[in-house]
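Two quick folds needed for the group meeting slides. Do the first one here.
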Amino acid sequence: MSAGIELGSAAGGVPALMDLTELLATRLLVQGNSGSGKSHLLRRLLEQSAGLVQQVVIDPEGDFVTLGDAYGHVVVDAEASEAELQRIAARVRQHRVSVVLSLESLDAEDQMRAAASFLGGLFDADREFWYPALVVVDEAQLFAPAAAGEVSDEARRLSLGAMTNLMCRGRKRGLAGIIATQRLAKLAKNVAAEASNFLMGRTFLDIDMARAADLLGMDRRQAETFRDLERGHFVALGPAVSKRPLPIRIGPVQTSSRSGSPKLVPLPEPVPDARELIFTRGENEPVDFVPRPSPRPRASAPTDVLVQLANYRPAARPEIPEEPAMPPEEREAAMAAILAEILADSDAASCTTATLYQDFTVRCRIRRVGGALPSLPEFKRRLAVARAGVGPDVSSMPGWEEAEALAAGLPEDLAGLFLLVARAALEGAPCPTDRELAAAYGTSSAGRARRMLSYLEERGAIVLRRDLRGAPIIAIPALGAETRPGEPELGAGLKMRR
């Protein structure tokens, strides 16, 4: 099914269309200063696609709750507990209901925690409910900040992790992230970089104009044009809109924000008793002003924290019987199976080691793998071995312990690549293909993997050569072994000896 929605008009009054099917696969980033028309653009997009796809709106200011009256969106009150928000999000995916998560009643830290819980519930839904859905996040710099702010590190980590999952891994789960921000410089780069479609509005700061121009493939002189854009005018680029930068004017909307833009109104006529009006309590005014309670206690002063720690006494808790320890062989098999599942995901090649490690620890807790989990350095070693496809039959092979010792002396990111070559050499197997080399290095770029082979040769770890047919062969002098010739076209970018 293919569907095009009309965002507005381009030059000459030609309709500016967005391919909704393509948008679901490639994500969207909207940028513009306050007052540039970002919320108007998001509202237009939501209204035009309301009957075509499920919609989830993360709304920090309560601007989009009016969609409920016209299009049937359910407004979710974010003051619910984090666990309840996760359960609501799971039911949202199950029943394919369009919702608006209103965060206006919360402070900044609680907004981040609530958004993280809700996005986590959407992301962790069962596979049978992975229906396509637009996930619109307004003021995304609040939930994926580029730098630490006044909120706690824990809240920032949770929110940033949820936003990263949405933009990096949400596509496989049917979640198409649409994020809007006032400033690109305030938005985490790993979140912004995952978008393939861009709508850039008015901005004034040089750093934001330069980043916007860079994303759109424009030169520095053209970047100055972002200062002159009128409200509601954007420059679009991406596979869902246009293959070349396209200035468009966003069309009208049917609904409006509850607040709206402030407008000038005449001041009342001066009154002689103005002082008495503001210093005298009114008839219906409460005697004592009760400040609004904070939903989360603020951080105490360092001295108060020390006193609390000194006086703390843990409350007696009922003893909970520990689960029986998993046998070592079963534990190792479980961790190996989890690591294999992670690497089987096509997105694993584009994820950092830290992200894979976090996914590994979460899956281990879900499977109840007891005992101390591997540290990050140990996980990196296991990851390198797994990427090399090493099983019990290989680990018992003569010379393998020496190969692992050689890999330990190499940079961590090259260990998997070296072990793959060492395995082929010790087994007398053909030289690995470009795709196998790239997978062992943790990338999708065969050229990058070949450059790493050249680096290993410079370090004296391997020797690259070709036979008379031009087929590549990789030798490992320290092991006294070499691979059999591979395909002649393999390693076309490598300089090999004959």
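Then this one, please, same format:
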Amino acid sequence: MDKRILIIIPAYNEEESIVSVVSTLIRDYPQFDYVIVNDGSSDHTVQICRERGFNFINQPINLGLAGAFQTGMKYALKNEYDVALQFDADGQHLPQYIQPMLDKLAEGYDIVVGSRFVEKKKPFTLRMIGSHLIAFAIRLTTGKRLADPTSGMRLYNRRMIEEFATQINHAPEPDTICYLMRRGAKVTEVQVEMQERIAGTSYLNFTRSIGYMLRMAISIIVVQWFRGGAKFKKEWRCTE
């Protein structure tokens, strides 16, 4: 039997891009189900979803990415999906890479990351310093390389759906991915391309980005050692 696949699209104030992103999925990738999680948007995102007949969950208050993503994972678990994909509502993620990620997941991995730097070298620019720092922290604590730890395009199997749906501290962030790797989750990456967001501005300006990267690095190096949870039974592997 074919696996049931859900695309989870957290959306906060994405009125200018949500129609393009979802319409493309509906038109070109009807084999995949999707759900938009409107995260307390203050613009017209929810009205657009309602008018267009999109499949969406409306959170009346803003819970942030972690809360929106966990809502999507709870939906996936309740509706018995086998695979869930985290997918941006701003148009940066390209759906043509979903199938290659699914093919890789079928090899026995728990998480597949859509990475910009599997086959391409990561530039050592000011923008990428934080990514280098997080990648170093992950390698330091796991001994494994994750080339694009901040990528938000991630594919999860059923076991990971259950983890994220039931564990309140599991945010879709690099520190949680690293934590799951240390517990035994099998993680790999697939080369993808990403484009600039269709419209709007990311909440992560330069100052916030620096703060975010530092928090992630500290969490990976220090905090994760105090997180509880039993290890997975199977050994894990990650791309070298």
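Slide caption for protein two: Confidence is low (pLDDT under 50) at residues 234-240.
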